[in-house]
Amino acid sequence: MAISQCSVDTSVISQLADKPALTSAELKASFDEAGTGIKNYINNTLLSGITSEITTAVNTLGATVTSNQTANNTRFNTDEGYITTLQTKMTTVEGNITSINSSISSLSSGKQKVISVGTTTPSGGSDGDIYIQYFT
């Protein structure tokens, strides 16, 4: 099963008019739309797809090991080369799982910048933060 690509429209804000005639709630919802869509994709599609792929791989590996063990029980218990090969493959699978977990962490960490509002000139913050200044 292939994991589908994220198709969330991330250009929601750039599609707004220069002076949008939206309520504050509608404007906030527009700012949240892409981030919420990406979060939902990661939580509902990507993670379940990765879990499914890992489960399939583990089940296939388990069936292969069980089949080989049943057919070659004596050889499996005495052939150190075979056991070493199997341990190497398991180490590779564990490394791949670690790599996938690391990728998931890097995909989800720090992706949504800070959005703040106020009537004064912004101060502090970090690159990429969004500040909406309004006048009363």
Summary?
The chain is mostly helical and 136 residues long. 61% of the residues lie in helices and 6% in strands.
The major pleated sheet works out as: 2 strands, parallel
Strand order of the largest sheet: 1-2
The helix/strand class is: mainly alpha
Shape: elongated
Order of helices and strands: HHHEE
Percentage of residues assigned to helices? 55-70%
How confident overall, as mean pLDDT?
81
Estimate what percentage of residues fall within beta strands.
Answer: 5-15%
Count helical runs. 3
Radius of gyration: 25 Å
Structure keywords:
single chain, mainly alpha, two-stranded parallel ribbon, 3 helices
Topology:
Layout: H1 24-71, H2 73-78, H3 80-108, E1 115-118, E2 130-133
Helix pairs in contact: 1-3
